[in-house]
Amino acid sequence: MSAFVEPSVENQAKLAKEASLELVSMEAHQRNLALRMMASELLAGAGKILDANRLDVEDSLRAGLPQPLIKRLALSPGKINMMAKGLMEIGDLPEVVGEVVETLERPNGLVIRKVRVPFGVVGVIYESRPDVTSDAAGLCIKSANAVLLRGGKEALRTNKTICEALREGLQKAGVNPECIQLVADPDRTAALKMMTMRDSIDLLIPRGGQALIKSVVENAKVPVIETGAGNCHAYVDSAADLDMAEQIVVNAKCSNPAVCNAIETLLVHKDIANRFLPRIKAVLDSRGVRLRGCPITLKILPEIEPATESDWETEYLDLILAVKVVGSLEDAVNHINKYGTKHSETIVTQDPRAAALFQASVDAACVYVNASTRFTDGNEFGYGAEMGISTQKLHARGPMGARELTTYKYLINGVGQVR
Amino acid sequence: MSAFVEPSVENQAKLAKEASLELVSMEAHQRNLALRMMASELLAGAGKILDANRLDVEDSLRAGLPQPLIKRLALSPGKINMMAKGLMEIGDLPEVVGEVVETLERPNGLVIRKVRVPFGVVGVIYESRPDVTSDAAGLCIKSANAVLLRGGKEALRTNKTICEALREGLQKAGVNPECIQLVADPDRTAALKMMTMRDSIDLLIPRGGQALIKSVVENAKVPVIETGAGNCHAYVDSAADLDMAEQIVVNAKCSNPAVCNAIETLLVHKDIANRFLPRIKAVLDSRGVRLRGCPITLKILPEIEPATESDWETEYLDLILAVKVVGSLEDAVNHINKYGTKHSETIVTQDPRAAALFQASVDAACVYVNASTRFTDGNEFGYGAEMGISTQKLHARGPMGARELTTYKYLINGVGQVR
């Protein structure tokens, strides 16, 4: 297979565009075969991938990159197995391309069919996690899109070996390997260029920290789906089952504090604050969570730190939780709509009217009743993998699977109609 | 009702956001009542609107603005009736908000409902046509969005009287008039500001000429749906019914050459070029259409002007048609995919395989078989009115009605599930 010379990103986009036309015209089973072959080549190439990853990790340690980044960068045989399993699962999912979403028959006899089609070329700009490389490539192949992958430079060797394996898999399935392109620029030049290539990139998805996403949103001329930032809340209503509330809050904060669907602020109705706050503090203390409270919280829990305005705005991604006592469900909703990032929000309540009002009023991609926010995830939704969690409202909201990587076109058939 | 003092656009967006929350929580019949009252106030205010319009038109004539712009600006009693009728029709359309698009039940018992919801606040930046004011406001109220309308400054007096009537209609239906905001800036300051107000405008739609749309796409940080530019083609296949082809080409070019769904280039298969080109020239001549041909066309029609590269790229919006003879259907598709603007494309053919291949391969919002491209229109699709024709692939493609002004959220109900 081709060695990775460093072609220009424009040329890569051109190759991807041409290859994407083959993808959309082939039968679905061939794309699914490609996904299985990609999985098998990933497993076959695991040794090479792990070797490359070791070098990337060593360099990153030497360069003093932060621990969480290195943790996200480091692969293991188990992680590569997971990546391969993800590709197999995507291959088994129902088709998303070619579906006739709707048929309109007009009085003049025109038949208008709305048909699901791929975007064409999808660009993904991401950071250190090499498993994004295979997830994103897999979802794009499933949805008949070619993909331009631009990962973090600290993962470049790893991503090169992963992409070689994925492209090998495409080739073995008789699919043009140019459908998967790794953009291997050592600086940001190519990434910035990708943001302006309106003619050759149909959709751009940034995945990563807030700084990356902000940079893409600010600079991009290509249509973008914003993903990621999650300043999520749990609201414990006056009608909550407090045992359930405790379990949900602990799970949503502690099961993986570094991810976007973890909660950052706990809102508690004043009527149950005296009962709930001491018990939740006890269990969160035992999990190492530091609390920061509003003035009313501090009266009940005088030993914790006070919260400042910036606490309500912060995605800690850490074992820290801001706590606020609210006077009503409406106050909780207003707080969430003011400070939230439209990601995932939950209410714990036994009152169905409170639940319905919360779900109707909170402006977020995923609004939960009596469940942990941690379920906002492509796998948990049954999408096999995800391209990220969209926090904007255009096109796709929440976990994005293969279907969210499609658009539609209208096919209109007539017998000579004119207007 | 409130006089139009000139509040800041930030303040208008804030008022709109607050009012939008009332819109989404009210029953659909109240929004539909509002649409009917808006129509009735438009009719009641027709005299005032026409007076204001006369002043706008006089000023524009004095300022020497181009004829087509003045034609789009000028209202008549008939046009106001049409605007009112449009609002009534939108009121009668099926509901688009609150629909449960999909329900997923997960193995862990979580029930995930995907529910259609409004964006919140929609911004519309447009040019001289005052009927956009009522169409856009109507579709936004139908879809429970508040709207910030920023029309051309040459139509400002007209738009003020129209908005006064529409807001009066809202008030008479018991709906907060702040749902409809006219941004009345005399220069581009407020429009430019709208493009950056990510926190308060959920979606921005530019409607107008290429320069306006380009400026919005280049400058906007708010999610944008690009509308409008239509470099559309008709391809007459070797298996075409030439009578039908003639009717479709004439209709698509001549019935309204100034609009985006008119064709700009005619592609003709080489096998029928000798028969078709002379007859289509004769009828287009009689309609005043000037042709510009490729070298092969010039051999058959030596009296017409030669086409240059820029002709293939140009949206004439005028009685000019570029003509090219192609060697195959594939050549036609490649030409369209290279030069088209992803708007509307048509093939005339009696060969179902050619039709299917054309529809599968052409990358455009609307791909026709044996019909005029002029049907790409919200009314023709049964949407009552339209917010424009989207030529991008994100979120909505082709004619955008009220449904295209909605997004969705996931409502997830559990019984205490944690992950």
Structure characterization notes:
2 copies of one chain form a homodimer. Chain A has helices at residues 9-25, 28-44, 46-62, 67-73, 77-92, 131-142, 156-172, 189-194, 210-219, 242-254, 270-286, 295-300, 309-313, 329-339, 352-361; strands spanning 100-105, 111-118, 121-126, 146-150, 180-182, 203-207, 232-236, 263-269, 290-293, 305-306, 320-326, 344-348, 366-371, 389-390, 398-399, 406-417. With 419 residues, chain A is α/β, with parallel strands linked by helices. The first copy, chain A, folds into 2 domains: 9-227, Aldehyde Dehydrogenase, Chain A, domain 1, CATH 3.40.605; 232-379, Aldehyde Dehydrogenase, Chain A, domain 2. In chain A, strand 7 (232-236), helix 10 and strand 8 form a beta-alpha-beta unit. In chain A, helix 2 (28-44) packs across helix 7 (156-172) and helix 5 packs parallel to helix 6 (131-142). Chains A and B meet through helix 1, helix 10, helix 15, strand 13 and strand 16 of A and helix 1, helix 10, helix 15, strand 13 and strand 16 of B. Strand 16 of chain A pairs parallel with strand 13 of chain B, so a sheet runs across the interface.
